[in-house]
Amino acid sequence: MNTIPLPPDLQATVALALAEDVGAGDLTAALIPIDARAEATVISREPAVLCGTAWFDEVFRQLEPGIHIHWQAGDGDRVARDQLLCTLRGPARALLTGERTALNFLQVLSGAATLARRYADAVAGARTAVLDTRKTLPGLRRAQKYAVRCGGCRNHRIGLFDAILIKENHIMAAGSITQAVLTARRLHPGVTLEVEVENLAELEEALRVNPDIIMLDNFDRDTMRRAVETVAGRVKLEASGNVSLDTIRAIAETGVDYISVGSLTKDVRAIDLSMRFKTCN
Q1: Structure pTM?
Q2: pLDDT confidence band for 278 (50 / 70 / 90)
Q3: Quick check: is 167 catalytic?
Q4: What is the DSSP string of 69-136?
């Protein structure tokens, strides 16, 4: 059973999506008799990791609470090609109106979960955790980060408000790594603090001011290994840049604690799903 908490903005996200699609009313669904009822099934057209069932349910709950949905699989489950995912029964108009919005959530979030599972599987057995980033679709960040966790990877910070990540431009504006870290500690004591470095000299400077995490930005693997040896467990190390399914295992084997992968949420490929209807009495 999936125990990952659902995002608090789920209902609001669905409401915005319905407003975008339905507007003042579904002109085509109005062609259907108001008392007509229908059944529908959702099928996966390719192997995937399912994610987004709560968003799918919420679409129909907001349109017509009387629609009944029965799931054959849950978030985080691997599903096969042509597998039945769920059945729906209720007023035909509402089923037709909600079809696209509900499938959009299910397809996009299943796509993120499926990709996350591939990355998690690629480092299985290593001590390294795979993280997402803030490279998300506007308005869907918490949903996508939920999908990443359903796929077996972990979340980096949610936004600019829950952790500090000092990157190249922050360092330039602040004057130095040292100055940026010391100011951050003074202004926000107790908040997780990470600093990005681009070479071993910057790594040494960062170590002297003791951040919680150091991000190795675009280090080659030999330099990553030297960084791991230099740090010797004093702080956590995160590798970032030029990470793919082909390279992530070798990066993990350098001994870094985390690897961040922007493509988990940035390169969106929706899973192919199909919803089929039939009228019923």
Answers
A1: 0.96
A2: confident
A3: yes
A4: EEESS-TT-EE-TT-EEEEEEEEHHHHHHHHHHHHHHHHHHHHHHHHHHHHHHHTTTSSPEEE--S--
